[in-house]
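Design request, tokens follow.
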């Protein structure tokens, strides 16, 4: 458990609030050390220990997940880090309750 570095980490969106085509956001080369943080208490955090990018809480139907997208992972064209529009892109709003969570592992 703890901080995991990865040069191949990415976040992706198949559907989003702005109806963008599906996109993949790669980890920025200078931020690879912040790719993923695993905690048995707080759940997985993408982009740093405190979920600077995307925090999935252990009980997402009760405790909201949140996104502050764009510091550690690349953004789609036209989006800027820490804007309300960007923070709401992945989950519909900055704090959200996902109906489903899927995790993939690339081999």
């Amino acid at each position: 458990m703890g901080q995991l570095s990865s040069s191949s980490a990415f976040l992706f969106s198949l559907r989003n609030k702005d109806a963008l085509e599906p996109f993949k956001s790669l980890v920025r080369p200078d931020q690879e050390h912040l790719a993923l943080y695993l905690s048995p208490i707080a759940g997985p955090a993408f982009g740093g220990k405190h979920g600077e990018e995307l925090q999935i809480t252990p009980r997402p139907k009760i405790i909201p997940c949140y996104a502050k997208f764009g510091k550690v992972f690349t953004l789609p064209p036209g989006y800027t880090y820490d804007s309300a529009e960007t923070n709401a892109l992945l989950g519909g709003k900055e704090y959200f309750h996902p109906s489903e969570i899927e995790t993939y592992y690339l081999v």
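Comment from the thread starter after seeing the answer: thanks! The chain has one domain: 2-96.
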